[in-house]
Amino acid sequence: MAVLVTRPDERGKQLVDLLNQSGVVALHLPLFTFESGNDLGDLPKKLNQLNTGDYVFLVSKSAVDFSVRTLKETGFSWREDLQYFTVGQRTAQYFSCQSEQITRYPISQENSEALLALPPMQQLNGKQILILRGNGGREYFAEQARQRGANVDILECYRREPINYNREEQTSICKRSGVDTLVVTSIEILQALIEFVPENEQNWLKNCRLVAVSPRIAEAAKRQGWQTVILSPKADNQTLLKTLLS
Hints:
Elements: E1 2-5, H1 9-21, E2 25-28, E3 32-36, H2 43-49, E4 55-58, H3 61-74, E5 83-86, H4 89-99, E6 103-104, H5 112-116, E7 128-134, H6 140-147, E8 151-162, H7 167-176, E9 181-184, H8 187-196, H9 202-207, E10 209-212, H10 215-223, E11 229-231, H11 237-245
Parallel strand pairs: 1-2, 1-9, 4-5, 4-7, 5-6, 7-8, 9-10, 10-11
Antiparallel strand pairs: 3-8
Helix pairs in contact: 1-11, 3-4
EC number: 4.2.1.75
Family: Belongs to the uroporphyrinogen-III synthase family.
Protein name: Uroporphyrinogen-III synthase
């Protein structure tokens, strides 16, 4: 087995290191970097406009990184009278360490559906929810929260910027390295990977095993033509490593 890890930033590098230490050939090919989002300067004002008990939802570790840095630079701190949520346990732990705030997250699954099943999400009439996320992204949570009576505000903390590679050269390196397994951690990465690999290599790409971190990504991959899709129970690197080694 040889694995192509598309997860961006340090988390992707860490997974590659873990695989290498376990005797597995692994390559890191992040398809974009994260830059400051267009709305980041509005974060202190948006937080101050919330009422006591309102909700703040951080969609990812990148949302945590950019928002924490902005508040530190502007001299603001996270309000203790708000309720904070993430989709995943690792993001919740990371945010709690950075902000010293209690952070809630769904235990059963790391997705918007599980987040919406939490008890605090059942009565949202008049509740304000501030979503801190990247450019684009899934609208499901925001749509469902609005249907339940919440006022939802979305703030772009970061944006994805494509990395320029020689597509043919990088694809050739992957094939020569024997890559037969792909790790995909978001819908955006899946789409970027399809667009990245040249048309004449799409058969090779879709004959690789694909490890996804959510049923939504797995279904999207199957619709795009992948035959072998493996679902990792969670998105953190230790769970991905266990899934890959099994």
